[in-house]
Amino acid sequence: MNANKPSRRFDSRLIQKPRQQPRLQRTAWGFVTIAFWAFYFYLWAPVLTLMSWLVGGRLAWVQLYERKQQLDPFLVIALPVLLIGCAALLIVWAEYNRFRFSGKERRAPRIDVAHAEIARDLGATDALARQLAGAKAVTLHMDDDARPVGMTEQVLTQPAFR
Description:
InterPro entries: PGA_PgaD
Transmembrane segments: 28-54, 74-96
Helix content: 40-55%
Pfam families: PgaD
Protein name: Poly-beta-1,6-N-acetyl-D-glucosamine biosynthesis protein PgaD
Radius of gyration: 30 Å
Order of helices and strands: HHHHHEE
Keywords: Membrane, Transmembrane, Transmembrane helix
Structural class: mainly alpha
Number of helices: 5
C-alpha cells in the first residue's frame, strides 16, 4: 500500500452499527424518514386521482354509495360480512397449516462434510480445518495466494443478537 495514499477501509459517513446510536437520534431520524415518505406519497396523489378518474373510480363511487343520496342497504351489510368472512377464512387456513406442520421437520437433514474435504476446498491444512470447525468467531490469516494459513479466535463478550 502506498504510504501517501490513506486507507479507505472505513467510511465514517456510513452507519455500521445503528443500535449504538442514541435512541433519541434514531427516533428523530425515523420521524424525518416517515415525513419524507409521506411527502413523497402526497406528491403522487394527483397521479393516482387521475388514474382513478380514468378507470371510472368516480362513477363507481357514485353508483355504489351516492346514488340518489342514499346508501344501498345490501352493500352496508354485505361488505362488512365479506370482510369478516375473508378474515375468518384466512385465520382458519393459517391454524390448519400450523396444526398440520407443527412438530414436523420439513427440511432434509444436512450432511456433515469431512474436515479433510473442507481443508482441501479452502487450500488449508487439516489441523486448521478442525480448529475452524470448533470455533465460533475467528479472524482468518491468509497468505499472498489467498489461502488460509492461520487463525485467531475471538472471544465473544456480549450476545450477538438483541
